[in-house]
Amino acid sequence: MNYRKLGRTGLSVSEIGFGALEVGRDWPLWRRGEPDSIRPAEAEGIHIIHEAIDLGVNFFDTAPAYLHSEALLGRALEGARRDKVILATKCGEWFDGNTSQYNYTYDETEKFIEQSLRQLRTDRIDLLQIHSGNVDVVRRGETLAAMKKAQTSGKIRFLGISVDAEDAALAAIEDGGYDCIQLSYNLLSRSVEKSVIPKAEERNLGLIVKDGLAAGRLTTKFALLSDEKQKAQISKISERTERVGLNLAEYAIHFVLGNNAVSTVIIGTKSPAHLRENIRSASDLESRQRVSEMETSQ
Fold first, then answer.
1. 207-217 pLDDT, tens per residue?
2. Which end of the chain is more exposed for a tag (fewer CB within 10 A), N or C?
3. Beta strands in the chain (DSSP E)
């Protein structure tokens, strides 16, 4: 496993972070109802978390909106393993099994924090992020104020925001109160390369990438897509992967990590085999260079 600095936090994080969404609730949504979308049993979920730690993963990302995820991580990390990892969770979004509900008020943020501490069975959260924060949430500052209070009391170490839109990321960067930004970045979604990433790097913010595999689309599952236009787009990318001797998922991960401003890419999986494959591939720096050269030539 290779490690990078998480911006100005000074923390050293594994290039591959463990996304605990898939072990907490059925995912991805576009495969809902199919066997491959069903979350694993508790024992299986704990096993893959333990294996990730054994393989060198030290960054774990979860959220209350991931249903059973925080509680599962709490059980898996209880004891000595807790001190081996950097634990990141979020606030502001609930999920009732069908739809998400949002509340970014000061009082609710405090409730989110207390519940996460209980669920995770820990006395501190290493990184707390606003979940699906938008421009209005950033500008109001109410959520961040509650997070800072918890930080002062020692419950939170560092502060971040997970965004779904570039304007929210830019607003958070300009605000100056956030240590980390979590955003989507992959071969199908590259606009942040010019609009957001350089500004985050300039401010020395930790840059956490979600959706590096585009919710499973940048894997062999792309053949199951009903969107023929997107399927054709991924098929063209797949042709490039063959030229450098990698599968689609490996190529996609190397593409993200080829950007030196990225601190870690969160990969969610229910499969120990896929976890091992992704970590093995990510350690191959020669393949990463080949992918960077291939994408530069496009």
1. 999 999 998 89
2. C
3. 3-5, 12-14, 16-19, 59-61, 86-91, 93-95, 100-102, 125-133, 156-163, 180-184, 206-210, 264-268
How far is Cα 51 from Cα 185, in angstroms, rounded to an integer?
26
What gap in Å lies between CA 48 and CA 218, rounded to an integer? 22
Distance CA 27, CA 85 (A): 24
pLDDT greater than 90 at residue 35? no
Helices 248-257/285-296 angle, 10° precision: 80
For residue 191, the one-letter residue type is S
Quick: pLDDT tens for 93-107.
999 888 999 999 999
Beta-bridged to residue 87, according to DSSP, are 60
Separation CA 92–CA 94 (nearest Å): 7
Q: 49 falls in which pLDDT band (50, 70, 90)?
A: very high
Residue 279 CA to residue 121 CA, distance in Å, equals: 27
Query: 69 burial class (0-12, 13-18, 19+ CB within 10 angstroms)?
Result: buried
Helical pair 69-77 and 42-54, crossing angle rounded to 10 deg: 60
